[in-house]
């Protein structure tokens, strides 16, 4: 319930439209009851054939209540839907703001298809929270309290019977179905998440599935998940129809009870028969307000599950804002030094430390290369340094600042970064280079020349750089880093897809541009490392060797062995 309470607090920002919706909803509901009450009285009164002037007041009241009902219903729909759309927009913005600080570490815990289902489906589900969950019970209570109060002046027994009917049709039946729906809705959401995951995996891996002749099997898996999801939806729809039918049947039973109690009192002289039709018509009309409560269980469970799933991914905005407020927005005027002190890290829901008791120091302005076998934790060190992921074991410092106490943006604004997987947006070369900052076309062209790319700035770039080769994508990412020219250079396998000649040229440009900046390079290749100030060798998340090229070769340790293996491979 805490998640829905948070949604409710966010929703109350639209206080004006919410209050208008409640006011006009109540006015429309009570006007409808008054309209049919006056109609019932008019029918009974007309049966006694009174003078025409005696019927003028009920006729005028019927017309008046009809106008009030129509006008109030229109204003209620206008205000409630305006509030709903504004609330939905606010939910999207708030969820994005809470999700943004968790990227990219969130992908270590959630699959992209599941995140897509939550961001799209669950946020959309909450649009029904105000119209179908929060709002109807308020109108129901207000209309029935007014109706019961009025009926009390004519028959206390009838008012008690109507009160009993309200409790049954408006609360007991919906609550019973809500308990049943809660478990079923969790199943539906899980199945919908499975379908999203399978579809996303199939779309992203379509080419590989075709190459390995696995597309048909994957399609069958998607169809199987879809069938289970549709079957669960059909069962849920059937339950909702049954709930609606039960509420309507109970409402009619209450109205028949009003007729029976009223008729008995008329016979005993406890009720004027002139008002019996009026009480019956009031009962029939008032219980129309219980109809929305028939779908209340479904929308309540849907909203509860949606809110829980959203807040399972994110954290309360107050927590994020409080934590970010404590972090420093620092500015570096010179290349920072870097130190790791007994740092350990493992990804969420995994059992192996990818960084295990790492302690090292990288002086300001130095050039460092990190080498080692695949999976030894080299790339994770850069992610920790960029605050993509944060560790609670050990300390990472930029100069005297603890990285955990520094805002991510404060680090990123000083960093020129080239990762293994660099994203390129649909647009032009110019637009993708402009991510590094506001540069002239001349500066962009110079950066392209330095990485040996003969692109026009207006040349199109497809989504994810689909029209670029692996080497072109790497060089375009390096061109962005050259343009930004930060004080901290973090390069993760930046030239792995380049030929030897182009790689040597690009490395020369990088080292020249980095100048007095602090540079860290992650590499599997061991050639051309003689110019680096220090080489760090990692294995299984630990640092096994640190030193210059000459020192490590003289030591004849792991680096020497890796170098010998590389030479043998290329010699053969």
What is the total tally of β strands? 12
- CATH homology superfamily of the largest domain: ABC transporter type 1, transmembrane domain
Helical residue percent? 55-70%
Q: Determine the strand fraction and express it as a percent band.
A: 5-15%
Low-confidence parts: none
CATH architecture of the largest domain: Up-down Bundle
Name of the CATH first level of the largest domain = Mainly Alpha
Give the key terms.
single chain, 572 residues, Rossmann fold, four-stranded antiparallel sheet, ABC_transporter-like_CS, transmembrane
Characterization of this structure:
The structure is a single chain. By secondary structure, the protein is an alpha/beta fold. The protein folds into two domains: 2-323, ABC transporter transmembrane region fold (Up-down Bundle); 338-414 and 486-571, 3-Layer(aba) Sandwich (Rossmann fold). The chain contains 20 helices and twelve strands. A six-stranded mixed β-sheet has the order 6-9-10-3-11-12, sandwiched between helices. The protein is elongated, with a radius of gyration of 35 Å.
Helix and strand arrangement:
Layout: H1 2-11, H2 15-47, H3 56-99, H4 112-125, H5 128-152, H6 156-204, H7 206-211, H8 215-267, H9 276-286, H10 291-294, H11 296-313, H12 317-326, E1 338-345, E2 355-362, E3 367-371, H13 378-385, E4 393-398, E5 401-402, H14 408-412, E6 415-418, E7 427-428, H15 429-433, H16 441-450, E8 460-461, H17 470-484, E9 488-492, H18 500-514, E10 518-522, E11 534-539, E12 542-547, H19 549-555, H20 558-571
Parallel strand pairs: 3-10, 3-11, 6-9, 9-10
Antiparallel strand pairs: 1-2, 1-4, 4-5, 7-8, 11-12
Helix pairs in contact: 2-3, 2-5, 2-9, 4-6, 4-11, 5-6, 5-11, 6-8, 6-11, 8-9, 16-17
């Amino acid at each position: 319930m805490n998640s829905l309470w948070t949604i409710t607090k966010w929703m109350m920002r639209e206080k004006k439209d919410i209050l208008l919706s409640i006011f006009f909803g109540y006015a429309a509901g009570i006007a409808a009851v008054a309209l049919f009450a006056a109609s019932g009285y008019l029918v009974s009164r007309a049966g006694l054939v009174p003078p025409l002037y005696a019927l003028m007041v009920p006729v005028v009241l019927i017309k008046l209540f009809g106008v009030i009902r129509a006008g109030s219903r229109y204003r209620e729909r206008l205000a409630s839907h305006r509030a709903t759309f504004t609330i939905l927009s606010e939910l999207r913005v708030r969820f994005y703001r809470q999700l943004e600080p968790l990227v990219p570490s969130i992908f270590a815990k959630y699959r992209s298809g599941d995140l897509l289902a939550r961001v799209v489906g669950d946020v959309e589900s909450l649009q029904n929270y105000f119209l179908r969950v929060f709002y109807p019970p308020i109108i129901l209570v207000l209309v029935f309290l007014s109706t019961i109060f009025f009926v009390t002046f004519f028959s206390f027994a009838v008012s008690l019977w109507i009160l009993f009917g309200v409790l049954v049709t408006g609360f007991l039946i919906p609550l019973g179905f809500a308990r049943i729906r809660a478990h079923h809705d969790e199943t539906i959401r899980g199945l919908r998440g499975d379908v999203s995951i399978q579809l996303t995996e199939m779309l992203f891996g379509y080419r590989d599935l075709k190459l390995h002749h696995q597309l048909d099997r994957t399609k069958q898996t998607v169809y199987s998940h879809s069938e289970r999801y549709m079957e669960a939806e059909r069962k849920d729809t059937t339950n909702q129809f049954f709930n609606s039918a039960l509420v309507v049947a109970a409402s009619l039973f209450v109205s028949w009870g009003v007729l029976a109690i009223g008729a008995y009192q008329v016979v005993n002289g406890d009720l004027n028969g002139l008002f019996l039709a009026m009480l019956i018509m009031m009962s029939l009309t008032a219980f129309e307000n219980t109809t929305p409560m028939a779908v209340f269980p479904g929308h309540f469970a849907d909203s509860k599950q949606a809110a829980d799933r959203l807040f399972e991914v994110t954290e309360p905005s107050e927590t994020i804002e409080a934590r970010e407020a404590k972090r420093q927005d620092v500015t570096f005027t010179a290349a920072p030094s870097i130190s790791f002190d007994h740092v350990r890290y493992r990804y969420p829901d995994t059992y192996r430390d990818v960084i295990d008791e790492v302690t090292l120091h990288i002086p300001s302005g130095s050039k460092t290369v990190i080498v080692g076998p695949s999976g030894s934790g080299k790339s994770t060190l850069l992610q920790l340094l960029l605050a993509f992921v944060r560790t609670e074991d050990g300390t990472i410092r930029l100069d005297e600042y603890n990285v955990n106490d520094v805002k991510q943006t404060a680090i990123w604004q000083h960093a020129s970064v080239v990762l293994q997987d660099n994203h390129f947006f649909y647009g032009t070369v110019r637009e993708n280079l402009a991510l590094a900052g506001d540069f002239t076309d001349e500066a962009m062209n110079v950066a392209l020349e330095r990485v040996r790319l003969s692109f026009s700035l207006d040349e199109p770039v497809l989504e994810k750089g689909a029209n670029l080769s692996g080497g072109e994508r790497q060089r375009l990412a390096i061109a962005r880093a050259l343009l930004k020219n930060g004080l901290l250079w973090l390069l993760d396998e930046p030239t792995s897809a380049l030929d030897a000649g182009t790689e040597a040229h690009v490395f020369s440009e990088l080292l020249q541009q980095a100048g007095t900046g602090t540079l860290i390079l992650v590499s599997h290749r061991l050639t051309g490392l003689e110019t680096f100030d220090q080489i760090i060798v990692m294995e299984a998340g630990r640092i096994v060797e640190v030193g210059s090229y000459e020192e490590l070769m003289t030591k004849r340790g792991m680096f020497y062995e890796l170098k010998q293996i590389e030479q043998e491979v290329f010699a053969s």
